[in-house]
Amino acid sequence: MRFPAFFAFGTFVTASFAQVNESVQEIMARVAANQDRALEARTAFVYHQDLLLRMLRGNGKTAREEEREYTVTPTPSGIEKQLTRFSGRYEKGGKLIDYEEPGFTYKDLDIDGDLINDLAKDLADDKKSRDGIARDLFPLTTRQQQKYAFSLVGRQNYRGREIYRITFKPAGNESWDDDGPPWEGEILVDVNDYQPVVVTTRLAKGLPVVVTTLLGTNLKGLGFKVTYDKFDEGLWFPVNYGSEFEVKALFLYKRKIAVSLKNSGFQHAQVAAKVTFEEPLQIDKSMKVQEVKSPAPPPPERR
Prior knowledge:
Elements: H1 3-19, H2 24-41, E1 45-56, E2 62-74, E3 79-92, E4 95-99, H3 111-124, H4 142-145, E5 148-158, E6 161-170, E7 183-190, E8 196-203, H5 209-214, E9 218-220, E10 223-232, E11 235-249, E12 253-268
Antiparallel strand pairs: 1-2, 1-12, 2-3, 3-4, 5-6, 6-7, 7-8, 8-10, 9-11, 10-11, 11-12
């Protein structure tokens, strides 16, 4: 890099930091508060969800593929997803064969079939989240942020929006546990709304040595990216979510896996009130109604 270019870059970074008046702790605290509120605000929306999962062999050819479409409805504790369309394909003898139901296996030991169904549930069907995305993948809420250390890189323009660029990593010597793996990555935060615009994660630590050595199992390139968009005042919703990674298992099994999820068609949920009426009185039109005449008044008395 030439010195003039280097000097210009340094000036830009210095100017960026000069524009930032808040600490990264204050920024992320406001992000956490907004995320906590956003989780509740999302219960007001019904939306459409498209999910694509693809598994490739070592030679790059498709081993398994599924497309799923859902209608997502909020519940008091999370969401309910109704499958509206499904199509799947698996490779056998060099040909792709269609199937029509999730969880389908075509042989007793169908690793691809079991794995792709588990991925759909684990990565995009978290019943307790407000958008289906696994809650432990992105350190945004107050609870998740407690496990991470954040650093402010600077302030800049991203696709016409002013953002803070913030990096994060595990705060201590975290490893794989019941809360999931430790992540590191980057968060782009909207300067005005203090909402995440893009979050990118990758594994901060690999699998335990005993797993990779004794079981011959490993994950390569595991990470996720989620993009948010603004739909209402104070309400930002994840619209795109995806990942690409490689998995090796039991020394023989190897797949490259791609996950892509898209949310769209957001509408305010409406509570439908059902009003019932009594059946109207049925009249037999064949019946004749006789006319009843009033009696004539008596003649006036003669005086």
